């Protein structure tokens, strides 16, 4: 499923680039890099319910902090109980900054969540969230 998602994203970007390169009177689209962060079920999920509540509060607080700083432009959980728990779309300069921001998350620190980060490109001005 993960490979299918990335294949779809690559196909969409490639199609956009090729379609724009065929337009002889227009400059090619300017791309912007974001970071796609997949949050996944971690191996340490045996905390008591009170601890889980505190970890979750800290998790949300970290996302809100990043959003307020303009670093997290979108975040959200998945609607099932699978291994993929949620995603973040970050607007930061590099993988080191991704690590710095995401590893402040109490759920990451506690091992309830792990993450995988990948550079993700899209045409400038097309990422708009309300």
Question: How would you sum up this structure, described in words?
Answer:
The protein starts with a helix and ends in a 7-residue tail after the last strand. The chain is elongated. A hairpin with a 6-residue loop joins strand 2 (72-77) and strand 3. It has one domain (30-123): Dimeric alpha+beta barrel (Alpha-Beta Plaits). It has 130 residues and is an alpha+beta fold. It is built from four helices and four strands, in the order αβαββααβ. The chain has a four-stranded antiparallel beta sheet.
Stretches where pLDDT falls below 50 for ≥5 residues?
3-12, 14-27
Q: Radius of gyration from the CA trace?
A: 17 Å
The CATH class name reads Alpha Beta
According to CATH, the homologous superfamily is Dimeric alpha+beta barrel
- CATH T-level fold name: Alpha-Beta Plaits
String of helices and strands: HEHEEHHE
Task: Examine the secondary-structure arrangement and name the CATH architecture.
Answer: 2-Layer Sandwich
Task: Please give a quick description of this structure.
The protein contains 4 helices and 4 strands, in the order αβαββααβ. With 130 residues, the chain is α+β, with helices and mostly antiparallel strands.
Topology at a glance:
Blueprint: H1 2-21, E1 31-41, H2 49-68, E2 72-77, E3 84-90, H3 95-102, H4 106-110, E4 113-123
Antiparallel strand pairs: 1-3, 1-4, 2-3
